[in-house]
Each structure stands twice: as structure tokens, then as C-alpha cells.
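Inputs:
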Amino acid sequence: MTAARHSDYYVELEGVTLTYGRDDKRVNALGLTDLRLKQGDFVALVGPSGCGKSTILKLVTGLIKATTGYVYVAGREVGAEPVRVGMAFQNPTMLPWLSVRDNVMMPLKIVPPFRAQYRSKRKTEFRDRAEALLKEVGLANFGDKHPWQLSGGMLQRASLCRALVHEPQLLMLDEPFGALDQFTREELWAIMQELWMKLRPTVLLVTHDLKEAGYLANRICVMRARPGQIIDDAEVQFPRPRTIEMSYTPDFVGMTQRLRELIVSAKPSQEAA
Amino acid sequence: MDPQTRRRLDSTLFIIGFFVLWELLCWIFNVSDIVLPKPSQIIVTLIERWPALWPHTVQTLYTTLIGFAFGIIIGVLLGMLVGSSRLAYDVAYPLLIGFATIPKVAVVPIFVLWFGAGTVPAVLTAMIMSVFPIVVNVATGLATTEPELEDVMKALHASKLDILWNVGLPRTMPYFFASLKVAVTLAFVGTVISETVASNRGIGNVMMIASSNFEVPLVFAGLLILAIMGVALYAIFSLIEGRVTGWAHRKDDFAMG
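Outputs:
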């Protein structure tokens, strides 16, 4: 099933399930799931912990294989053709022996077609590209520093740069702002929105923070746990660029309240299952 | 005086004090040279016999360094294998531990049987002495690489070799250098063991002959030479370690460089 298919969607999960272990130790990590993302879309996955949000990210990047069903990216089964993927995690996972700039440039060293030119452009074009991104997230002049010399918020900014430096078609964000204080978080939402509007990758964001989902995403999918399943999928109508002020309007608050109720009311089934 | 200089001065004074105490105790209790020579006498012997001693010193040093170099190559390769493959780990560890437990003196006669007495068994003994800590540390460094660091690379569809080269090996460097410091001193032990048993050159051989002639100050002079070479090489590897793996100690002068 590697032949190209015609589809309006960039990412498609079709009847996907995922189980870990076997026999009586089976864990149903993901129940029957369908999810579709248009190219350049920004979709947030929210839900209680353990509901399989991160599992969906891993499925889409091909880090794990679905037990049943199909995952298509760019019209092909995932893994059939290398799609440039950027990824940022809750932990910034910078390599401590490299400078911040070299950390940001790491994808260029690994991912084709940049890989082939890495040696020749490492000190010119690629370096400038990394610096430009660092500047955009407010880390100009920090390229030569080492990760331990930066604060958690700064590292997370650098981690966003690393996720974007190779101009990924697909951006996977796994709670990248989860460990930050509120002010840093809101600042990074604004930066993230700006970068997304400029580069327009297809983004899948996993988060616990409903406000974050409402601020950043075009669509919010609510999941429930055990088995992980998408129980709600709604568009976010607010115009862009969105602002923090918007998140205090009655419409926005109403939306986050609705999401909250969905998540809370989905909980009892967790015990039943 | 800044604390750094102060610390160095203190430690130097204590080391000198140790030898002064040794000298004094020998005087006070009138200890015979054949039992325990005075430090001053050891140094005099060292200087007097230096023309005869230095070819042996060079022999021991270069034998050790060749053995050590082979030890590093084999140790790193084995460590990479053991650290990155579950099967290799399960197979190699019992073998390695068994091998490390064997007294190396017992192995020297076998080497002599295969290669004849002289430099070759000494090089081999130095090598097998230094291999074990290197293998263990390199393997440990690789096996304990944080999965998050690997995930970053896997998300970029990096090959196993890319991950090893860009994440595994750099992360293992502090472990590797820590093992080098231990391994280089062990390499000296290996060389001297072999020289003592089966060679007519090297410090080990000199000490063997000296002790059978009851020239105890010469034996101690040999020990002193070995100790100095050991300390010097340890210091060299510490220095390289600081340069290469400063990130692991979060040294700011590393970040500047």
C-alpha cells in the first residue's frame, strides 16, 4: 500500500487502533480512531493523561506502528516516503555537549536534502538560518551558549527553533510549553502562532492546557482515556492573529468551559472500561 | 591568595610532608636500608643509577603506551558493541568479567609460550589489563543514553549510525575518559608484571634483579619511576578530559572555548 492516493488531507488516520502487550496483559492504548488534517492545519489534541494523545503523535511520525488501520501522510502510508518532521517535547532535550546553535542545526545535519550540504554550508547559510530563527524567538546572541547556561524557557524556545529549522511539512508538538511558567508560556504561544502563520506547517499539538489549545489551534479534538478515543472535534472560530486578551472574552471562556465539561464527563467511562 | 592556589599549595605541602615523615621515622627508628630505605637515599640511588635506568624506563613507557593504545582501540570497539546490542551485552559480559577475574600473572606464561619472552607479552599484558575498564565504561555510557535524546533523532528519521555518532558517542565521552585514567595506570601494572616474569628489559626486570641482589633502594627507585610515570599520564588524560568533556561538568571555560 505504498502507491500515492488522492486525498484532500495531508494526514489521515483511518480506523487506527493500538494495543500494547499480549493476552491478559493487553493494554488498549488507542481505540478505533479516525483523524484527518488538511495541509497547513493546526490541530490540538486535549484530554486527560494517558488518553493516547502522544501515541497519536508517534503514529503520525512513524515512531510506532498501528496495530490495525492505516496512517497516511502526504497521501502515502507513513514511512513509505520520508516526510520532513519537526518535533518538540515537554523536555527541551538539548544535547549538552553542543552549543545552542549546533543543537538547532542538528536536523540539518540529519535530514535530506540538507544533510548532503551540511559540511559546506554549516558555517554560512545553515548557520545564518539557525541564527535568524533564534533571533525570532528572542535568543539572538545566545547561539554560542551551552544548554546548561540557559533557563528552561530559553531552552524551550531553542527547542522550537530546532523543530522548525529544516522547514518541516509536519510539526509535532508534545506539550512543549507544559513545564513553563504562565508568562513565558503565553509569550511562546504568540511566537508559535507567528511562526506557524509564516511557515504554515501542518501542526499537531498535544496539550493539557485548554487555553493554549484555544489560542493556537484551528481545530480541537477532545480525547478520553482507556481506551483512548476522540470524542469531540470542533473548529475554533477566532480570527488570527489571536491575542491573550481574546482568551478573556465570553466566547473564548465559553469554549474552554465546554471542552472542560467534555473531558470531565468522559472520565467515569474510564473506570467502567 | 585565591582559593585555587591555596588548595594546590596545601596539597603539595601534605605530599612533601608525607615523604619528610617517612624520612624522619627511618631516622628515629634506625630502619635498615634492606627493609625500608629513606626517601633521600632512594633519590640518590635514582640519580646515581640513572644512566643505567633510563633505557629501561623508556622501554617500560613505550611498551605500556603501545599496549594501552591497543587497549583503547579494542576497548572502544567492544564497548560500542556491548553497549548497543542486547545480545552482545548478554554474551560479552560474563566472558569479560570472567576474563577480568583471571590474575594476569597467570596469563603471561601463555603469552611467552606463544610469542617468546620480551616486549610482545608485555604489550599484550598491558593491553588486556586496560581493556576491561574501557569496555565497561563505554558500554555503560551508551546503554544509559536518555531515550528522549534518541527520540529527537528518531523523529528526524536518523539512522542507527547517525544516532550513535551524534548522540551515543559524545554522551559516552565522560565515561570513556574516566576509564582512560584508570586504564592507563592498569596498563603500567600489566607491563611491569610481564617484565618481572619474562623479560630482560624494563623497570619490572630491573626491580626483579635488584631485589634478588638485596639492592632495596634500587627497587624503590624503580617504584618511584613507575609512580611518576603513572601520575604524569593520569594528569595528561585528566587535562584532555577537562578539555573534551567540560560540558559534563558544566565548566564555563569549556563554553568559552
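Remarks. Chain A has a mean pLDDT of 84. The first strand of chain A starts at residue 11 and ends at 20.
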